[in-house]
């Protein structure tokens, strides 16, 4: 993979500042046991320490650049699934751990009811239990902005580079605030770090109302966008750095989140106030928030178009591939082909690159029978799609399986034998479940399933005819420990250059924002603001067209038992939400979508199910069994808990409801 913004510089700078963490832990201990009037350190890290080290960091361009990469280093580690809350806490995948490799402190405990206020999992504020320390990140961003904005500092830094660096860090500062807002709702805004000798009452910051938080983050994105480059020119060393399209796209995601039911007219939080009586989440609905979000989405889309950011299409290969495979490769590679033309912002920090292999190793199914060995994937927790996720994909007609009036899916376990017409999706002559037939291309592109075709670059046949196919019955190959618990693999997430012969992975940036996501955000915001029609249909249909589907209008009119569903705001809302689940599956967004839609209470309170993977015959294998009974507590679990000890340190803070 191409070198991306000097990971060695990040490591060097992190070593330089790593001493802070011990000091902060000691300060927190002192704040708890010593009267508040004698302690001036906040858990939010709004007061810098190691001042002498900070002064040395801005004596030259080279040293300042190290601090710039420190600001980048707090970005989420999304390609390690044991850290990726958005992927593991939702309903798309499930993880079982036959080798007992799941650590007791990681985010894989979240869907098992492990969250608590005494020691929160994925503590985004403090950076404990497998989360980045976002307030420490904000503090470092503030230090950078303050020093680099001072023209007497970093004397060898030219003005254009100075402006760009400041803009990048403003973006990062906005993003770290967004990560906190998405999880906690109302949060303290840390616009500037406080002086070491600041009065204790200044250090005891308060949570700000959601609307104020959103405006603050949006303004930061705007300030950053004004000075950011339109594109990355130095692709050898700067891929992953922030651009103007990324700033506008992330602002759009922020505003869509803020306009969503969790934060817009949520009566559950009518009594949620701070200790001064300030309302922290307004229970009054505002349609204007959706209009503002739609406008932001369209501005980002227009800029992306100007920069030739477009939906990824798999390029015509030298060998002949069927139209079916070409469509599916466009779907797969939109996520896992590195630096493709659809990517608006990809996370490439050192922590993501290191874990990319680990993530892909969970996605690699047993399709290459000549070179596969059980030892290559044994002794790891295996993450795989749930049967619920498999059911969620459309039929080949582009409508849900329980709405298609021309195809019968009432018995998904019914056994069928694949014919020649199925050969690009299912191994001809093999027996598999009815669920695997007559599905849309994203089903076959995204899921690895028993007897399913798995085309890769090193196909032995040099084509998609007679190519790799998957065995996923555990007893059949005596490798039950290596089959994901529900029987499905995240095929989409495995880069198509992977080979079992050498077990080598092609790393790719985590798609924090790609164009299809932005299109669907726009369709959603516009539908809520104005109702269905016009651009609502245009942009969702662009995504569907790349997936080989008919338009929403044609598909529902012709094939659905609810033919007018797309003509109402409520019906179109359901269609858009499902479209997001399918198009963006395994990319870490669905869990946060379920929260902002206030849909988690329904979707995350159910049994996790899958096939009976330890069997070898299709009759025994294709039985839906319960794996785990999930519980999501409403409304408590919609917002993250603040650690109880932090409430003792800062008595101006209030806990989130019901924690």
TrEMBL record:
The keyword DNA damage does not apply. Residues 342-659 form the RagB/SusD domain. It is found in: Cell outer membrane. It comes from the Bacteria. SUPFAM superfamilies: TPR-like. Residues 132-254 form the SusD-like N-terminal domain. This is RagB/SusD family nutrient uptake outer membrane protein. It comes from Mucilaginibacter gynuensis. The lineage of its organism: Bacteria, Pseudomonadati, Bacteroidota, Sphingobacteriia, Sphingobacteriales.
């Amino acid at each position: 993979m191409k070198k991306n913004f000097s990971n060695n510089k990040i490591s060097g700078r992190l070593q330089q500042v790593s001493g802070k963490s011990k000091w902060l832990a000691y300060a927190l201990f002192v704040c708890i046991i010593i009267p508040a009037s004698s302690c001036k350190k906040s858990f939010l890290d709004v007061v810098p320490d190691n001042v002498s080290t900070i002064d040395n960091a801005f004596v030259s361009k080279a040293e300042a650049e190290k601090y710039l990469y420190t600001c980048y280093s707090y970005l989420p580690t999304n390609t390690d699934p044991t850290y990726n809350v958005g992927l593991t806490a939702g309903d798309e995948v499930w993880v079982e751990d036959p080798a007992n490799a799941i650590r007791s402190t990681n985010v894989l405990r979240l869907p098992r009811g492990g969250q608590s206020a005494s020691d929160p999992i994925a503590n985004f504020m403090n950076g404990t239990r497998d989360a980045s320390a976002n307030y420490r990140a904000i503090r470092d961003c503030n230090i950078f902005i303050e020093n680099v904005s001072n023209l007497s500092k970093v004397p060898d830094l030219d003005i254009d580079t100075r402006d760009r660096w400041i803009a990048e860090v403003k973006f990062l500062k906005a993003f770290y605030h967004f990560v906190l807002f998405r999880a906690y709702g109302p949060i303290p805004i840390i616009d500037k770090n406080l002086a070491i000798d600041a009065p204790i009452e200044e250090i005891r910051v308060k949570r700000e109302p959601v609307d104020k938080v959103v405006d603050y983050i949006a303004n930061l994105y705007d300030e950053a966008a004004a000075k950011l480059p339109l594109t990355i020119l130095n692709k050898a060393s700067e891929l992953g750095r922030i651009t103007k399209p990324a700033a506008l796209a992330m602002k759009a995601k922020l505003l869509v989140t803020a306009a969503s039911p969790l934060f817009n007219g949520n009566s559950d939080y009518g009594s949620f106030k701070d200790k001064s009586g300030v309302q922290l989440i307004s229970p009054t609905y505002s349609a204007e928030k959706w209009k503002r979000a739609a406008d932001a989405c369209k501005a980002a889309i227009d800029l992306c178009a100007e920069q030739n950011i477009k939906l990824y299409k798999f390029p015509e290969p030298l060998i002949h591939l069927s139209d079916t495979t070409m469509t599916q490769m466009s779907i797969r590679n939109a996520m896992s082909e590195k630096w493709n033309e659809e990517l608006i912002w990809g996370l490439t920090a050192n922590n993501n690159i290191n874990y990319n292999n680990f993530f892909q190793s969970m996605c690699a199914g047993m399709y290459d029978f000549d070179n596969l060995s059980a030892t290559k994937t044994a002794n790891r927790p295996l993450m795989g799609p749930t049967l619920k996720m498999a059911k969620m994909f459309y039929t080949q007609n582009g409508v849900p399986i329980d709405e298609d009036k021309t195809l019968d899916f009432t018995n998904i376990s019914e056994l069928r034998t694949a014919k020649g017409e199925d050969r690009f999706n299912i191994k001809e002559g093999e027996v598999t479940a009815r669920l695997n037939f007559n599905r849309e291309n994203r089903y076959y592109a995204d899921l690895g399933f028993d007897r399913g075709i798995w085309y890769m670059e090193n196909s032995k046949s040099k084509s998609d005819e007679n190519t790799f196919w998957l065995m996923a019955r555990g007893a059949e190959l005596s490798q039950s420990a290596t089959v994901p618990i529900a029987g499905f693999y995240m095929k989409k997430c495995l880069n198509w250059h992977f080979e079992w012969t050498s077990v080598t992975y092609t790393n790719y940036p985590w798609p924090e924002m790609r164009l299809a996501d932005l299109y669907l955000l726009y369709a959603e915001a516009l539908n809520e603001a104005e109702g269905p029609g016009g651009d609502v249909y245009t942009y969702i249909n662009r995504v569907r067209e790349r997936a080989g589907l008919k338009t929403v209008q044609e598909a529902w009119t012709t094939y659905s038992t609810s033919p007018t569903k797309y003509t109402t705001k409520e019906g179109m809302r359901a269609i858009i939400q499902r479209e997001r689940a399918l198009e963006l599956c395994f990319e870490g967004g669905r869990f946060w979508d379920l929260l902002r839609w206030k849909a988690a209470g329904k979707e995350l309170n159910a049994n996790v199910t899958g096939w009976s993977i330890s069997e070898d015959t299709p009759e025994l294998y294709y039985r839906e069994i319960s794996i785990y009974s999930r519980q999501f507590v409403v409304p408590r679990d919609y917002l993250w808990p603040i650690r109880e000890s932090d409430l003792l340190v800062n008595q101006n803070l209030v806990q989130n409801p019901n924690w």
